[in-house]
Amino acid sequence: MSRRSQTATTQRRMIDRKLQGFSRQPTPQHGWIRAVRESLGLSAAQLAARAGIGTSTLLEIEGREQKEAVTIATLTRIARAMDCNLTYSIVPENAPTLDALLDSRALQAARRIIARTASSMALESQTVDARETDAQTELLAKSLKEQNARTLWEDE
Question: What is the model's pTM?
């Protein structure tokens, strides 16, 4: 395993540990700012005053949040005005960890590569047993993951 690959593996595992307990949460209908503000019993005017902005500006920010057009800096400022912290993370959508996501991508890439090879071999009447194909696919997936191959992110 190359030094770069070892570094990526170590970094991925550290991030996975930090992300434990995080999950994709559906955004409340009117956004997190309004949901938290209302649950704390703060009016828009009160929160705006605490943030040092006008009420109309706060309502505009809440609207931008709903459209996913608000900056992290703005979210942080509003969170602090509610005595809260903004927690920002990127979590895998269809896997429990980054490592599992990479396993899945490596397996998909290996299947694509093996399928192309199998197609060529079939044209030459040189088919391989399904169990052997599965074993080769697993080995290739492991190798691709260890190499941190960019082919993992190529979609066909």
Answer: 0.73
